[in-house]
Amino acid sequence: MLIEQIIIYGSIFLLCFVVIWFYLRKQKKTTQATVAKIEKAKQEGVFEPVSLHPVIDLGTCIKSGACMDACPEKDIIGIVNGRATLVNAAECVGHGACFHACPVEAISLVIGTEKRGVDLPHVSTEYESNIQGVYIAGELGGMGLIKNSIEQGEAAVNAIAKSLTKRGGTSYDLVIIGAGPAGISASLTAKKHGLNFLTLEQDSLGGTVANFPRSKIVMTAPVDLPLYGKIKLFDTSKSELLAIWNDALSKNGISIRENTKVEGIRSSQQMRAAQTIQENTRVQGIQIDGDVFYVHTNRGEEFVTKTVLLAIGRRGSPRKLGVPGEGMEKVAYRLLEPENISGKRVVVVGGGDSAIEAAVSLAQQNSVILSYRGDAFARVKPKNRERLETAMQDGKVDLKLKSNLVNIDNELVELAMEENGGKQAVGNDLVYIFAGGELPTQFLEKVGIQITKRFGYTMKKHR
Ligand SMILES: Cc1cc2nc3c(=O)[nH]c(=O)nc-3n(C[C@H](O)[C@H](O)[C@H](O)COP(=O)(O)OP(=O)(O)OC[C@H]3O[C@@H](n4cnc5c(N)ncnc54)[C@H](O)[C@@H]3O)c2cc1C
Q1: What are the 10-residue block averages of pLDDT along the chain, 463 residues in total?
Q2: Which end of the chain is more exposed for a tag (fewer CB within 10 A), N or C?
């Protein structure tokens, strides 16, 4: 009997020992692999988060690994000693899939870190900025994610509708700038309130979503789209979401004015202070009564409105080169789905990571010239430098340093070569320009909106 018991307890002990041994061995291996990835991320400068990123409360984390499974990006979160930790945090795009997936709410979404601050505008609880009549909604105000932006767009326009004592007249009640999730929902809400409004978008409908480099979207929590109803999507595609938005807008007779970039906003108060107009004056044939805003676009138009909603997100506006032919359809400032582009003669312009990544990925199926005005790539990730060198050695990318794109036409582009002062015309089908851009902060400053640098600002928990 005693021997039997010894055998049973001994077997159980041995089994437990083996299970624990395998578990600890696996944990050790995972930890070692993650620590190596963290070291690499530090060397490559992608360890420190740039903007919105998860912060894990280790006291609450139960090691479920749900955050890692949910994140569609690669190695943003890893496991060290059984606990979740950040790895390539700078590459986090802030869609918050980890935040939604965590079963014990151990994750908060935070903007900026103790070392790296992020500029956020001042916004009241009614979504109004320091300038009376100028409102802010969506990611620009510091609250990312599609659902939050949709909800804020609606809430901001509800507040605007309440604030408008006098509607209609010769000016617009509201000009909405940006047609991402916040701007779309704001437009639908403005329609619901019967406002006389206009929505201006520098690019095309959909905002950041339309420009996702991949088609998969994670939108876990259901959201109410004004005048449309509940959208319940999980693991959807961007085309499905864009189709819903298009459907909602067209059913309500709303058309967004695309390819129209707002370059400036001035209030009648500012203009009076600068003595450029007098009260009750005429601007482009419009009789103005009371304080209004003049919204200027890149097309030379001016719109007069009682209120403005900034729903411009945080990704800024791409910088243009200002060369002839830049308005042609074959010119783009973002690369989407390079796998669908093949057999083309492509010129990529720029000397940063985006330009190199675009050149290298396009070179898989196209003939690529990379044109950069500098004589060397100063601040690019080592990984990109290596990839570019390999592509050049394989004859896939033709690098032209100290060159400036000066003209674009249907079949050719012209490069001015600094070395010999001459010009080189090259056959061309597509041009991609990565020349940096204007940050939303610069735009806000121009408008006069107060901004504060926030170090590690936590978004409200919003599931
Ligand atoms: C790769 C990637 C994947 C993501 N995945 C998800 C996800 O799965 N789920 C999720 O919830 N969130 C995701 N996000 C985050 C989400 O896309 C953003 O939080 C959301 O789009 C913010 O909405 P918004 O309307 O505030 O701004 P945006 O979507 O950025 O829209 C702002 C719009 O304003 C326009 N604009 C800017 N300046 C001007 C100007 N001067 N004049 C006229 N128009 C202007 C821009 O062109 C843009 O269309 C992801 C983000 C990225 C980058």
Answers
A1: 83 88 86 90 82 86 87 85 86 80 89 80 92 94 86 96 82 96 98 97 89 67 90 81 95 95 88 61 44 92 96 89 91 87 96 94 96 90 90 95 96 92 93 89 91 75 48
A2: N
Where does 2-111 sit in CATH, by number?
A: 3.30.70.20
- Mention the CATH class of domain 323-435: alpha beta
> How many CB atoms lie under 10 A from the CB of residue 25?
10
Atom of ligand 1 nearest to the CA of 146: 11
b/e map of 430-447 (b: 16 or more CB within 10 Å)? bbbbbbeeeebbebbeeb
Mutation test of ligand 1: which of 73, 95, 443 has the most ligand atoms closer than 8 Å to its C-beta? 95
Q: How far is the CA of 315 from the centre of ligand 1 (A)?
A: 7
Going by C-alpha positions, the residue among 81, 89, 148, 85 that lies closest to residue 311 is: 148
Tell me whether the CATH fold assigned to 2-111 matches the one assigned to 323-435. Answer: no
How do the domains of the chain map onto residue ranges? 2-111, 120-317+441-458, 323-435
Helix (H, G, I), strand (E, B) or coil at 18: helix
Our mutation pick for probing the ligand 1 site, out of 76, 201, 208, counting the most ligand atoms within 8 A of Cβ, is: 208
Measured in Å, how far apart are the chain's first and last C-alpha atoms? 58
**Domain 120-317+441-458 is in which class?**
alpha beta
Locate the ligand 1 atom nearest the alpha carbon of residue 216 and give its number. 8
Structure tokens at 32: 């070692």
Residue 323 CB-density burial (10 A; 0-12 exposed, 13-18 middle, 19+ buried): middle
CB of 350 closer than 6 angstroms to any ligand 1 atom: no
Ligand 1, atom nearest to 140 Cα: 26
| Residues composing the chain | 463
